[in-house]
TrEMBL record, chains A, B:
This is Hydroxylase. Coiled coil: none annotated. Residues 17-199 form the Ferritin-like domain. It comes from Aeromicrobium chenweiae.
């Protein structure tokens, strides 16, 4: 029998799947609100009003993503904040380990984070029931505010080549921290991992498929770094 | 002849009026983006995720107000950031003088500031050409996220009556600073004040009308303080 990365998704009638989806929505919702918060913080380092506004536009987009995820949790009869709260430590750790030390690091983080989140949303969408999938893909479609970052980073490297080396290391650290936090979240949460990995009655990715997903995420990250003019 | 507060508005063909409207839009746009920024800052003091999100929703609404004003400046053929920049010191001074020392002061500032801005938008709308008036009234209509503040402040006063006295003083200081900055802006900018006050060829408010406007703004502020359970 040929293996396929994508198998028929479960439904919300399945209690384990439902718990896993709630955890996923809580994770994504917390991720969006904490990205919004951190972008607002980084906006303060902007060299001028125009760049401050670009970052504020990204923060606003993240807030609207959060709203969609929160509204779905409410529709599902859940207290969104109760569902989100367990993921606070994950994002506190991530942001604590990746606080930008200047404006350029903030820009790279915004760009890399935005891209990685979009890729991850796209990857997991295939394993979700149709309603959740539509929500996840809709949420994703709102990003794309971060293209101005490419110009800003390339210009900064043109002006001082040492900047490129420092930001390349920074980009690698961001990706490393994101993967390490992702791994910890999945390891801690059985239902959530079941949504992705599958269980006895719940089809999902097999280990080879997970490996391929990580390869795709890493390759897409490398492509983004390249676009910024940074060694991946 | 009977005097009226509202006289026929000027048009953008009039260069002094045009300059005044550009200044007004720049002032409002800077006010919105700086409110957005300060709310994002205050959100960090939120006692829980739910309240953080309420404040972030207000910040997001201010950002969308900013976008409308910026887009109009672009439509008018202006660099919005160049038009806004001169008002940076006004808002730096205002926010510098009114940095909340805790979450409750942040809430009162958000509520009082949101209300005062809405009142001011409504007051000036009457003196503007129809296009600008529609924009200003549209921008205004997006507010109203701050009603949750009433519950939070009244509850805090119930728990500790001394809080009421402190926040009442704080509210008075906010209004005093807002009026003092408003007065400085108008005094520094002839074209802007001409839009409101009128000139030889530009009808506007007479001094009695300005007095009445300040009375209305002050009364509305007092009513808001009262709604919060604070002595005006």
């Amino acid at each position: 029998m040929a293996t396929s990365d994508v198998q028929p998704p479960s439904t919300m009638d399945d209690p384990v799947y439902r718990t896993g989806v709630l955890e996923l929505l809580g994770l994504l919702a917390y991720g969006e609100i904490s990205a919004c918060e951190r972008l607002a913080e980084d906006a303060k380092m902007a060299p001028d009003l125009k760049h401050k506004v670009e970052i504020a536009a990204m923060a606003t987009a993240e807030f609207h993503h959060f709203e969609k995820l929160r509204d779905r949790l409410v529709e599902l009869g859940e207290d969104p904040f109760a569902v989100m709260q367990p993921f606070a430590p994950t994002f506190e750790r991530f942001h604590g380990q990746t606080t930008p030390s200047d404006w350029l690091e903030g820009l790279v983080k915004a760009y890399v984070g935005d891209g990685l989140a979009a890729d991850f949303y796209r990857e997991i969408a295939a394993y979700l029931d149709p309603d959740t999938r539509t929500l996840v893909l809709d949420t994703l479609s709102g990003t794309g505010h971060s293209e101005f970052v490419v110009d800003a980073i390339r210009q900064a490297i043109d002006e001082d080549h040492r900047v490129g080396g420092r930001l390349a290391l920074w980009g690698r650290r961001l990706m490393g921290e994101a993967l390490s936090q992702a791994q910890m979240v999945v390891a801690e949460r059985d239902a959530l991992s079941t949504v992705l990995v599958g269980g006895v009655d719940h089809p999902g990715m097999d280990l080879a498929a997970i490996g391929r997903m990580f390869t795709r995420l890493t390759e897409a990250h490398a492509a983004r770094m390249d676009k910024l003019g940074l060694a991946p």
